[in-house]
Amino acid sequence: MNAKPPLQPFPTPSSSSSSSSNSFPLTQTLTLHWASLPLSSSTTTTTTTKSKRPFLVHTTTNHTTPTDLSLTSTEPHNSQDQKLLALLRQRKTEEAWIAYTQSNHLPGTTCLSRLVSQLSYQNTHVSLTRAQSIITRLRHERQLHRLDANSLGLLAVAASKAGHTLYATSIVKSMLRSGYLPHVKAWSAVVSRLAASGDDGPTEALKLFSSVTRRVRRFADPTIVADSRPDTAAYNAVLNACANLGDTKRFLQLFDEMSEFGAEPDVLTYNVMIKLCARADRKDLLVFVLERIIEKGIPLCMTTLISIIAAYVGFGDLETAEKMVQAMREGRRDLCRILRDSNSENLGQEDEGGDGDVFVKLLPNCIESGNHEPPLLPKAYAPNSRVYTTLMKGYMMAGRVTDTVRMLEAMRRQDDSASHPDHVTYTTVVSALVKAGLMDRARQVLAEMTRIGVPANRITYNILLKGYCQQLQIDEAKELLREMADDAEIEPDVVSYNILIDGCILVDDSAGALAFFNEMRARGIPPTKISYTTLMKAFALSGQPKLANKVFDEMLNDPRVKADLIAWNMLIDGYCRLGLIEEAKNIVQKMKENGFNPNVATYGSLANGIALARKPGEALLLWNEVKERCWVKREGEISNSSTSPPPLKPDEGLLDTLADICVRAAFFKKALEIVACMEEYGIPPNKTKFTRIYVEMHSRMFTSKHASKARQDRRTERKRAAEAFKFWLGLPNSYYGSEWRLEPDGDEYASDSV
Q: Where is the composition biased (Polar residues) (predicted)?
């Protein structure tokens, strides 16, 4: 209940519910804003003074509309260009492409822009590849300026829809560097994709949004850049990025900025706010988001109610989710009252994270909620299959397989066809059965889907593949992959192969993992970052770090993926598992040079490698680095270096391994530092283990009666540390004023081990 709930999906601006606002038809005219001198005396130049490198924008003399240069370039002067342009005007894109490839010269601006636009609009893998080849050629020949904003914008949208988010981002950034201001529907589509992607996608979405809006603000006359100004859909996309990051302060800042550009929050904006509340662990505020929508008169949609149910499911509060669904079944409009009563003990709770002021500004209606009655819904909303399936997912996550199956049966008996189970419902049941290890029953559900005409999709098969791999039934997984492609005619995707590669790791089959990786690429499926790191894991666990290094090098050379800290750590761990500390340290140094700071996993692998290599001196160096990053700044103190690595919170595995190494090597002073650090972070040291190590390895330390006076003087400090360590362990020591001896007391045990 106290854990942060998983983020629930919501309709982003690129989803079906907002397709109208983010659609990008070929007939949409995009205005080109670019930096150059006026074409003639009939045009005037408008500039800004806020920037050191101002944008110069062509406008007509009456300053009403910006000059549209997208398809009005100089007409072609040779017959090849005229033929190509005629084909493009007739929408004979395939013939136009052939004519372009057979031409011995580079076509003009109009032909190139139209060709890229039409190829992008086709939105197929082949057409997108062709459009990208034109871009590549123009970049190599330094002729990218031949393309207008319309064609580049369409290409960015097509690339983002095809999942090539990095490429789409590079197109928009290239436009900005060249002085173009892309149409809002072009750059916001890329922001939307970035916001919904993993890793640093949301952060990049914020950067891209700021980059565009910063340029838009440079123009004193907003009509000049009207087509590039952010609209509500663009703000929804960037607010989604903030919600995914849990950045409440930036969310509020952008939310307040909407009025500056005339963008009004809509129902999707508040759907994103529901996600933000879930990310910020503010279950008490969900009802106030719903009330705010009603109070502002924003048309409510079913997606909002589904998002609220999903949020309660994510919090593990299935009781409130059930009450909400039951009220919808009864046709009640007082959902706000029901939600308030269900969370009355949490309403108005203080936020420990310091985000209380943010939410008060976002939801001012939550301040004095007790002074007014909760509003009614404008109408009753009957639950549909998405509502039931969302609640069913809660049962699945809680391991309530019986309730999941019962809900499926209940949905089948509903009179309303909108409440009948669909492929998502059946896939949820399959997931629940797979999670419980009931693979036979899961396959029966798959067979039933085929029988009743509800086709399974790729996600359904991937869940089954994962179930077989988790149960180490790789042969069954291979057979299911064949059925998926041959019988169901569903081509496996990169997720399918990632699951199979990981399954091979579970059965120690690195050769099989490599075979699936190569098969995936032979099918034309580009590997993802997970594909590379999973294959690296296969080689690292099988004691083949050099092969893991080769996979890593290939990953670095793949422009479609970006190596992250997980990949670096996987490579380091591969060498540490064999005790190859020097190689691992070299990789750590390269990792730092590439802008990645070691984390707890990095240090943990190094500690394990040092223990395996039996190089306690390396442990002291590692502990010094860890200790520096574990230092907690005192109140009011500021770090003197902006480039210093971020603070580190060590875990039990790292500190216990370092302490173990130090105790075995008789570095008792360092061992005491480490156990003190463990206690500071609330990690209980294993005194039983350390006592056993001391008794077995150091019980006869400093007992030799024949050591020289000089040697005895040199070991005085170490002896004090040993006595202090025994004191911490609770063993007899000099602090108690008693002599500690281990029986039997024979001369063979009286030796100086130092």
A: 68-81
pLDDT at 465 > cutoff 80:
yes
Q: What is the DSSP string of 499-545?
A: HHHHHHHHTT-HHHHHHHHHHHHHTT----HHHHHHHHHHHHHTT-H
Q: How far is CA 195 from the centre of its chain?
A: 9
Tracing tokens 């606002």 back to the chain, one arrives at 21
> Which stretches of 217-334 are DSSP H helices?
232-245, 248-257, 267-279, 286-295, 302-315, 318-329
CA angle 190, 193, 199 (to 5 degrees): 120
CA distance 659 to 663: 6
Residue 698 — very low, low, confident or very high, per pLDDT cuts 50/70/90?
Answer: confident
pLDDT, tens digit, for every residue of 377-431?
999 999 999 999 999 999 999 999 999 999 999 999 988 888 999 999 999 999 9
Alpha-carbon dihedral 205, 211, 216, 219, rounded to 10 degrees: 170
Strand partners, 44: 59
pLDDT (0 to 100) of residue 645: 82
Which of helix, strand or coil describes residue 108? coil
| Residue 565 exposed, middle or buried by CB count within 10 Å (0-12, 13-18, 19+) | middle
Classify residue 90 by its DSSP letter.
Answer: T
Assess contact for 201 and 165: CB atoms under 8 A.
yes
Domain boundaries, the chain: 457-563, 570-631+647-702
Q: Which residues partner with 753 through β-bridges?
A: none
In CATH, 457-563 is 1.25.40.10: yes
Mean pLDDT of 444-465: 93
Q: How far is CA 158 from the centre of its chain?
A: 22
DSSP of 397-442, one letter per residue? HTT-HHHHHHHHHHHHT-SSGGGS--HHHHHHHHHHHHHTT-HHHH
Q: What dotted CATH number matches 570-631+647-702? A: 1.25.40.10
CA 35 to chain CA centroid, Å, is 36
Name the amino acid, one letter, at 18.
Answer: S
653: CB partners within 8 A, 6+ apart: 604
Contact (Cβ atoms closer than 8 angstroms) between residue 733 and residue 727? yes
**Phi/psi at 45 (5° precision):** -110, 125
